[in-house]
């Protein structure tokens, strides 16, 4: 008997909001725009639509593959030719949608084929989703689409299953074949998330990307810290969202309880494009939840 998530309407609504937020970010990514301003506009849109950001908006550029969100003091501006990944999440009571797209800032058209390759790859992966079907079939479809354009998949970054309040729920969806023996189950929520590069196809840890999350519930010994956990639970967040000085101080005290996220950098400093949709594994295939 298939097990669909509870409150399926909330998952669908979160998906629609996340899809519109992604498209807003791609439209607003213009030369001279501050990355911090862009992230805050996207996150404000999600909240205005009745959801909460499931994680800080990732605005990784060029050979940054993932996990960069602006700090509260970030002053960097987008410039013509930046290859910007807009990776956003929305949730309604823990029902999470995760989606991403890539835009070349200023329409300089130097990386059109790279962007096309990742769009083809996410579409191919979605088309291969079947209840009871193998994850490897999805991975091989993604890999073929990337190679058809003459690029490499980023091997170390994968799609993933999603559960309530759990962004990465344990089952990975690689962008290359031969890595998974798992099957997809009807009712699962899955993020299909290829990364494509003209570099080496691997990533390494770069500097801190201004994203953290609680590893576990810190308990009630520190009421200020407990208040912060009640707000974020184990979803990723950023101190850019923490205005209360007491909460900021409590989070500094609790660094050992927090997981920090480094920026992922392509090892050959190749340029990276990303695309992502959250889908529901339905009886006949994928229902895309994050279409705009």
Describe the protein's architecture and organization:
The protein has helices spanning 8-28, 35-48, 112-127, 135-148, 223-232, 245-253, and strands at 52-53, 58-61, 64-66, 83-92, 95-104, 152-153, 159-162, 172-173, 189-192, 195-197, 203-214, 258-266, 272-274, 277-282, 285-288. The strands form four sheets. Strands 8-7-9-14-15 form a five-stranded antiparallel β-sheet. Strands 1, 2, 4 and 5 form a four-stranded antiparallel β-sheet that branches. The chain has a three-stranded antiparallel β-sheet with strand order 3-12-11, with no helix packed on it. The chain has a single domain, classed as Creatinase/methionine aminopeptidase superfamily (Creatine Amidinohydrolase), CATH 3.90.230. The chain is an alpha+beta fold and 292 residues long. 29% of the residues lie in helices and 27% in strands. It is globular and about 55 Å long. The chain has six helices and 15 strands. Strand 4 and strand 5 (95-104) form a beta hairpin.
């Amino acid at each position: 008997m298939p097990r669909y998530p509870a409150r399926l309407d909330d998952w669908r609504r979160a998906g629609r909001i996340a899809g519109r937020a992604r498209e807003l970010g791609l439209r607003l990514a213009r030369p001279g725009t501050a990355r911090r301003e862009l992230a805050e506009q996207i996150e404000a849109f999600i909240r205005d639509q009745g959801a909460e950001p499931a994680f800080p908006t990732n605005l990784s550029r060029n050979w940054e593959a993932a996990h960069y969100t602006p700090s509260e003091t970030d002053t960097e501006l987008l410039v013509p030719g930046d290859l910007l990944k807009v990776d956003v999440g929305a949730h309604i009571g823990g029902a999470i949608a995760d989606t991403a797209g890539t835009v070349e800032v200023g329409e300089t058209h130097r990386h059109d084929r790279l962007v096309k390759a990742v769009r083809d790859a996410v579409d191919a992966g979605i088309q291969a989703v079947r209840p009871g079907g193998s994850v490897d079939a999805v991975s091989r479809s993604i890999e073929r689409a990337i190679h058809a354009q003459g690029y490499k998949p980023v091997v170390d970054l994968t799609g993933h299953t999603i559960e309530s309040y759990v962004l990465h729920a344990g089952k990975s969806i690689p962008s290359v074949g031969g890595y998974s023996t798992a099957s997809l189950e009807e009712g699962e929520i899955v993020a299909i998330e290829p990364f494509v590069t003209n570099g080496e196809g691997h990533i390494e840890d770069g500097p801190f990307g201004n994203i953290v999350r609680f590893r576990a519930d810190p308990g009630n010994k520190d009421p200020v810290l407990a208040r912060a956990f009640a707000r974020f639970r184990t979803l990723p967040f950023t101190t850019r969202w923490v205005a209360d000085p007491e909460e900021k101080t409590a989070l500094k005290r609790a660094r050992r309880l927090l997981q920090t996220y480094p920026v992922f950098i392509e090892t050959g400093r190749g340029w990276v494009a990303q695309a992502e949709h959250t889908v529901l594994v339905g009886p006949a295939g994928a229902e895309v939840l994050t279409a705009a």
